[in-house]
Amino acid sequence: MRRRIVAGNWKMNGSKDLSEKLVGYVRSETGSLDNGVEVVIIPPALYVGDVLRLAQDAVSVGVQNVGRWQSGAYTGEISAEMAKDAGCRYVLVGHSERRQFFGETDEQVAEKVSLVLASGLAAIMCVGESLEERESGQAETVVAGQVRAGLASVVRAADGRAWQNIVVAYEPVWAIGTGKTATADDAQAMHASIRGVLEDMGAPAEKISLLYGGSVKADNAAALFSEPDIDGGLIGGASLVAEDFVSICRYFPAGA
Ligand code: 13P
Fold first, then answer.
1. How would residue 256 be classed by pLDDT, with cut points 50, 70 and 90?
2. CA-to-CA distance for 175 and 182, rounded, in angstroms?
3. Domain tally for the chain?
4. Which protein residue's CA is at the shortest distance from atom 1 of ligand 1?
5. Does residue 140 carry a catalytic annotation?
6. Is there a domain that residue 8 lies in?
């Protein structure tokens, strides 16, 4: 049975006030879910402490990025070890906004995945094609390349248990924040393809959770989550609206 995860990525949004209002509500509304979903909140790093206090262990917490180094003179960066020390469980790695606005490369993504695993946290590694790549029929090739490159260090690790802390999020760039969602069929096809790549890399592919992200809303989550290879969602905009986020968490078919 794969872990089912619904994670809210707040991106550069939120405040102490939003944390107070949203996290307590999410905690109380999702505490009794019977569909086995692990709810994760990934706020800006400054609010991790507040979110952890409000989540009271009922909701997992993550950070949106970590530096490529263990520690030292890297002003502005936070490390995977710090995220662990602060009480986080997850780290997003290689989000398309990091790749697009901060020039993050596949090699850097691989370095970060390696540091996250070394710290004992789980990495949610993001992959996804641009609109141009989809329209030119390159989507599966591009995504397969990102999966192979980003997880290269896991393949090299002597300890196969490292895969237990890997989650892959498929987020087509053209669907992020645009209101355009991949159809459930297209998302399923890509997830099946990613699982095939993982298998080919020697990973225990059937045990690795694959999340879909890109304009997931309360009205399209149920269709996406009923696909066999979609094990959860990475939610941007809708995770900032407490009722919407809770609805999305509830849309997993119970016990499936
Ligand atoms: P939206 O849900 O706002 O499209 O964002 C998706 C995303 O990038 C989550 O990481």
1. very low
2. 7
3. 1
4. 236
5. no
6. yes
